[in-house]
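Hey, I was hoping to borrow your eyes for a little while. For a while now I've been wondering how a particular protein folds. The fold is given in discrete form, as structure tokens running alongside the sequence. Could you read through the record and tell me how the tokens relate to the sequence? Take your time with it, there's no hurry, and the full record follows here:
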Amino acid sequence: VQLQASGGGSVQVGGSLKLSCAVSGRPLTNWFMGWFRQAPGKEREFVASIAWSGGLTKYAESVEGRFTISRNRVANVVYLQLNGLRPEDAAVYYCAARYRSAADYNSWGQGTQVTVSS
């Protein structure tokens, strides 16, 4: 699976962004798609995930109610809508994929930078 993330940028506190991740390489039935982020000096952390087939979503507590993950199964794109951005949301955001039975995400896209200014 190949992943190409885009949509990052610079916004003010309280602003919004929509990240996109174009997916290619194989049928995505039975795959999970995820978004992760890594801020300077911090470890990479899970943000959200979605089951490609059923659409079941999961969120980190820190973004629940502010971020929304979705997918377009025709266009093979995964989205992350970021609302109510806070300074602590600033990071490089990565999209990733794992097969349903895999323990870890093993396909990663390049990151897209999100900057939040006050």
